[in-house]
Amino acid sequence: MSEVFEGYERQYCELSANLSKKCTAAAALNGEQKKQKLSDIRAGLEDAEALIRKMDLEARSLQPNVKAMLLAKLREYKSDLNNLKSEVKRIASGNLNPAARDQLLESGMADTLTASVDQRSRLMMTTERVNQSSERIKDSRRTMLETEELGVSILQDLHSQRQSLLHANKTLHGVDDNVGKSKRILTAMSRRMSRNKWIVGIIIAVLIIAIVLILYFKLVK
User: Fold this and answer.
1) Computed from CA positions of residues 7, 12, 13, 18, in that sequence, does the dihedral angle turn out positive or negative?
2) Main-chain dihedrals φ then ψ at residue 94, nearest 5 degrees
3) Is the pTM of this model over 0.70?
4) Are residues 55 and 74 in contact, defined by beta-carbon separation less than 8 angstroms?
5) How many Å apart are CA 216 and CA 211, to the nearest integer?
């Protein structure tokens, strides 16, 4: 989950709880004190609306799967804010007369406060579920990153092995070339040796013939 969204969320929850306490306190006040308290509450509601707008912008800038969860949570916060506004209206309308105020405090305000408590309980449960989902997403993302790193490591090993095989192949080609050169040299040497044998043989034959002729002429004389 976005850390920016979580920061806005914490601020809103704290502000909402504070406004709820102020509403309860304002319901028991009269006159200028009540007006001042209501003015303070309305300023807090404006801050709450600003936080909700920021959360909305942040949620819409995230990935679709995270965005859907955060927008669902945001709807709960908007409903909570509307309940707070309704409480403020009820308290403000209590300025008409003491009887109306007492009636609102005994019936409407009690129902509204109860609804607000229930709403916050649902918000906490929803927040917990979303946080758990976010943790699962983080775990999945962590696993994906680990798998990606493992894949990169395997690819690097394969690349290194490929380079080794290419180097070995080049070495073998070099050996083949050297063997070919050696074979050609040996063949040339063998041919020269054969030619030399023939030359030596011819020379020996010529010498033998010359010796025979010399002996023959000596014997004839």
Assistant:
1) positive
2) -70, -10
3) no
4) yes
5) 8
